[in-house]
């Protein structure tokens, strides 16, 4: 509605302007004082600023053309854990997330210990909690939550590492779990 | 305007289109027939000018129907906000002109007003298009390249100053050459052609849609359409070959595809003796007894019959995993394995069927013979549930298990083909096993060992397979870089060892 009003006003003013070319006399009743012209100028400049602001706050809204050429990409098993480990920096204070990651690795670790040592599930869990399942003190510390029983130099090195101790230990725990299978399990080799 | 530059044909994300078949076709992606057509009918030229492309006529000697009109499935009109803020120039020039009393500045503002009028008075055209799609072959072998040529004709009255066409390539097919899209301007009656290549893979695919975007000249308004075209289909069947290489001895039963039963009858294994009845074959008379006490007795043997094997595929969304980005994914490998196992079992005289855990029912009752073989090939190649892309619906595992249990004969054996990505797959194998079916799991390995997450998943899967072996399920772990025959042979050694 306002659009048509302004359009009409614009057309009327345009016609008056063109008419003024032929008969300059018809513009005499219009105010032409200095103050008025400066006021009009300032209002116009304000209008320009408003337009600039409008542009800045308006996104171009072109239709997105679909990615027709790409075929679907499928995940590799374990992508999810990698993503979560990569996000640890963002979820630094998210204890629940750390707990979930520890659970996930712990489940696989317990199953692997059970398979390797042929022990019960409880015994495997206990080995995890005691840290007796691996020779890597940092991997063991991932589940025990205690200070790794490692030489001071190694611990200092861990502190200086770019990655958080949690992530570092998580990775070492995964490595240790994998080693359980590789070292001396003929079935594991055969898989 | 910088945006205007991006609107030119040949922009980085847009395809290059050839407008109007005819003489100097310098476009590499155009099919050879265009040039032929131009040579054949040099005088059939009309007039046409489009977007700086060749000024050639719409020439068509296609015996085929040519482009057919499309049906609009959905249409959406919108402002692109392309000119938003342009009025700042008008206001600025006029304001400054008023403040410093400069006539040229005031006049400059008038020019801006003209531009704005131009931008806002026109509406995006409503494209009326006819489309023809040509495929270099409709029945490619898996791995072949199929060239798709799309001809788009403006059959409406309006000029389409900025037309973008994006092909709706079936999701599972990867485009190997050329973008499947084009940008151009089309006058009424003018045509453009673009082409691209896709890599064929097992399955049945339909090309039946285009995304069309048409803008007005100033680019301020645009219309986005989803149109349905005359469908073109590609059917890529799995190869018939390569079955003899799968050593299945020991895979299903130690009797090479035959199972012994408790009933007496014909066979090779002695079962019992009974009194001779008239009509018993001479070869089954026990001559030793006859020599001893002159009575005719007939030997009975343990009856043997064909084994019944059902190949069960795991097609849940969870099974759609892949080791890395290259190569076939686990389900594709599984279906390939299923095909080989199926054919091998058929060759050794078993009755084989197919079932699947999928969003829709997949069932081929066990059978034998060439017709059965052909039916299985068709099913494994083109059944929609066996699509190379993950299903969207849910798979009801319990229901499918129950249904499968009803269908399976008591002594039927099961070959369960699954990458074993989760506990559910192990549950399936175990449930079939406890129902008394001999279960063999053929598992394409989808794991990698490059990152901690991948390594943990690999260990997890290895534990799962180990647990299954512990509960007497036979497991064939098929590594990605290994032929199926090798994996089967390795598994067989383990079973017999």
List the helices and strands and how they pair.
The complex is a heterodimer of chains A (191) and B (497).
Chain A: H1 2-22, H2 34-56, H3 79-86, H4 95-117, H5 121-130, H6 137-144, H7 152-160, H8 165-184, H9 186-190
Helix pairs in contact in A: 4-5, 4-8, 6-8
Chain B: H1 2-6, E1 18-19, H2 32-40, E2 68-69, E3 71-79, H3 87-100, H4 103-121, E4 129-135, E5 145-154, E6 160-167, E7 175-177, E8 181-186, E9 191-199, E10 203-215, E11 221-236, E12 258-275, H5 287-293, E13 297-306, E14 308-314, H6 330-347, E15 351-357, E16 363-367, H7 370-382, H8 397-407, E17 413-417, H9 423-434, E18 439-444, H10 452-470, E19 474-478, H11 484-496
Parallel strand pairs in B: 14-15, 14-17, 17-18, 18-19
Antiparallel strand pairs in B: 1-9, 2-4, 3-11, 4-5, 5-9, 6-8, 6-10, 7-9, 10-11, 12-13, 15-16
Uncertain segments of chain B: 1-16, 21-63, 252-257
- Biggest interface: chains and residue counts? A-B, 61 and 78 residues
Q: What portion of the residues of chain B fall into strands of 2 or more residues? A: 25-35%
Helix tally of chain B? 11
CATH topology tier name of the largest domain in chain B: Immunoglobulin-like
Question: Could you tell me the radius of gyration of chain B in angstroms?
Answer: 34 Å
The total strand number of chain A stands at 0
How many E strands of chain B?
19
Average pLDDT of chain A works out at 83
- CATH class division of the largest domain in chain B: Mainly Beta
Task: Please characterize this protein's 3D structure.
The complex is a heterodimer of chains A (191) and B (497). With 191 residues, chain A is mainly α. Chain A has a domain at 79-190. Chain A has 9 helices and no strands. Chain A has helices at residues 2-22, 34-56, 79-86, 95-117, 121-130, 137-144, 152-160, 165-184, 186-190. The longest helix of chain A is centred in the N-terminal third of the chain and has 23 residues, at 34-56. Residues 185-191 of chain A have low confidence and may be disordered. Chain B has 11 helices and 19 strands. Chain B has helices spanning 2-6, 32-40, 87-100, 103-121, 287-293, 330-347, 370-382, 397-407, 423-434, 452-470, 484-496; strands at 18-19, 68-69, 71-79, 129-135, 145-154, 160-167, 175-177, 181-186, 191-199, 203-215, 221-236, 258-275, 297-306, 308-314, 351-357, 363-367, 413-417, 439-444, 474-478. In chain B, the strands form 4 sheets. In chain B, strands 1, 2, 4, 5, 7 and 9 form a 6-stranded antiparallel beta sheet that branches. Chain B has a 6-stranded mixed beta sheet with strand order 16-15-14-17-18-19, sandwiched between helices. Chain B has a 5-stranded antiparallel beta sheet with strand order 3-11-10-6-8. Residues 1-16, 21-63 and 252-257 of chain B have low confidence and may be disordered. In chain B, helix 3 packs antiparallel against helix 4 (103-121) and helix 6 runs antiparallel to helix 7. Chain B folds into 4 domains: 2-80 and 124-236, Immunoglobulin-like (Sandwich), CATH 2.60.40.290; 87-121, no CATH class; 258-306, no CATH class; 308-496, Rossmann fold, CATH 3.40.50. Chain B has 497 residues and is α+β, with helices and mostly antiparallel strands. Chains A and B meet through helix 2, helix 3, helix 4, helix 8 and helix 9 of A and strand 3, helix 3, strand 6 and helix 10 of B.
